Amino acid sequence: MKPIVAIIGRPNVGKSTLFNRIVISRKAIVEREAGVTRDRIYADAEWSGRQFIIVDTGGLGSESDEFGPLIEEQAKAAVQEADTILMLVDARVGVLPDDLEVADLLRRAGKPVIVAANKAETERLRQSSQEFFSLGLGEPWPVSAAHGMGVGDLLDAVVDLLPPPSPDGDEAPSQRPPTFAVIGRPTVGKSSLV
């Protein structure tokens, strides 16, 4: 069974951008508006010969609309099923109260966590990302998901935290429930149906 890595964080820190960078695809929708990712999105990934499943999630602390609690429920489910968690924060704005709440949730989960300070495109932002040590989850990794800076080093750290492969080398896809999409033209009741 392939190990699972969940990308967790508050809204608009770049989780979907990092997810797309890792899977080398535009599978997740990326928008400036918060709350676009509402469900878990899964994809197969590989780094340094290790295969794993990467999960994109909606933002924790996204209670801005009626879907907020459901988005958080999906993100928390991803935390529970993950073998390793990648907490993404925004290096441009520093530590926010929502980051502290997410870090507390992840500490209680008792799973390996790596903190990645995204949007650290400049040397000043890379240096200031050290303030994320205050989350109590170890060394923050400065990255820029949009530009690919530092993502390789981050993935090296992620792979090091994955559980060892099974002795027979079999990493079959995990048994997760099927996913469904509800599509249609605008204002036909898709959200009401969901």
| Percent helix | 25-40%
Form type? globular
What is the mean pLDDT?
83
Tally of helical segments: 6
Question: How many DSSP-defined strands?
Answer: 6
- Written as H for each helix and E for each strand, in order along the chain, the element string is EHEEHEHEHEHH
Q: How many strands, which pairing sense, and closed or not: the largest β-sheet?
A: 6 strands, mixed
Alpha-carbon Rg, integer: 16 Å
* Structural class designation: alpha/beta
pLDDT < 50 stretches? none
Tell me the fraction of residues in β-strands, as a range. 15-25%
N- and C-termini, Cα separation = 30 Å
The neighbouring-strand order within the major sheet is 2-3-1-4-5-6
What does this structure look like?
By secondary structure, this protein is an alpha/beta fold. The chain is built from 6 helices and 6 strands. The protein has helices spanning 15-23, 68-81, 97-109, 123-128, 151-161, 190-193, and strands at residues 4-8, 41-47, 50-56, 84-90, 113-118, 140-142. It has a 6-stranded mixed β-sheet with strand order 2-3-1-4-5-6, sandwiched between helices. It is globular and about 50 Å long. It starts with a strand and ends with a helix. 38% of the residues are buried. The model has no long low-confidence stretch (mean pLDDT 83).
